[in-house]
Amino acid sequence: MPATSPPQTEGSPISGAEGPPGAATPVPSGGSNPGAPVTQPRPPASAPPTRTYSAQEASAQINAVSLALADLPAGWTILSDTAGVSDANSASCGWLGSRTVTNLVGDPIQAFVDGETLAFLSSATVFATEAGAADCAKSATAGFRTSGDIARLFGNLFIEPDAVVVTEVGAPTVGDSSIAGTLTGKISVQGNIIDLTVLVVVYRKGNVTGAVASARSGHIPPLSELQPLIEVTIGRLSATQ
After folding, report:
1. N or C: less crowded end of the chain, CB within 10 Å?
2. DSSP helix/strand/coil, 183
3. Strand order in 192-205's β-sheet?
4. Nearest-CA neighbor of 187 among 123, 112, 91, 107?
């Protein structure tokens, strides 16, 4: 007599399935393979907490981004070192402080005659959060492309900031985002009015927006002389974030 299979009873495994008694039965997926188990999606990863910087941390970051005499060749001097003030727009972004430093070559008249760099400049603005810095950076970028507002990053350097001509130029990205360009306008050096062209790279890294620039009269400064200074300031800033 041929052997017969035992009848299926409630709680028995499905015929042909392997596993110990009582094992969970895969739930049909309803797709092309009805016997395949349903894959449950993983819950989304939680976003990292937003860091909020203090006024003390902001002070350290401003110093990190600002050019110091030790960053420059011997013989340079500080022409101006100015703490910034908040306006309505930057206050809404969580402004914590800003600073603009202008460093002047030892003999500006000779540098002017030779067509060499007259000044190195730096500007730093610190916000409480990265999101606040990103919001204000968008406004700054728009101003860079449409007007001479970017000239005000450097305080009172230009005699007529609104008359400054801004031209965007190509440059490698710095930090999280950046933009580069030239600013051409008139300045006063030791009582003499001269035309000045400034090459500036404005960047945002985390909660900080910074700018590094060099200036010559009658010539566009080379980007190559700015790159080492940018690397120095970005390196110092990274240690504070």
Report:
1. N
2. strand
3. 77-83, 95-104, 119-127, 208-216, 192-205, 177-189, 165-169
4. 112
Sign of the alpha-carbon torsion through 89, 91, 93, 97: positive
Interacting residues of 220 by C-beta distance below 8 A, sequence separation 6+: 182, 197, 199
Place of tokens 């035309």: 195
CA atoms lying within 13 Å on the CB side of residue 73: 10
pLDDT tens, position by position, 37-75: 566 667 666 556 789 999 999 999 999 999 999 999 999
Task: Indicate the pTM of the whole model.
Answer: 0.73
Compute CA 30 distance to the chain's CA centroid, rounded to the nearest angstrom: 49
CB 214 within 8 A of CB 194: no
Inter-axis angle of helices 227-238 and 55-65, nearest 10: 160
> Residue 134 class from Cβ within 10 Å (0-12 exposed, 13-18 middle, 19+ buried)?
middle
One-letter amino acid of 75: G
Both tokens assigned to 102? 């202008």
Half-sphere exposure of 181 (CA within 13 A, CB side): 23
Name the phi and psi angles at 162, rounded to 5: -70, -15
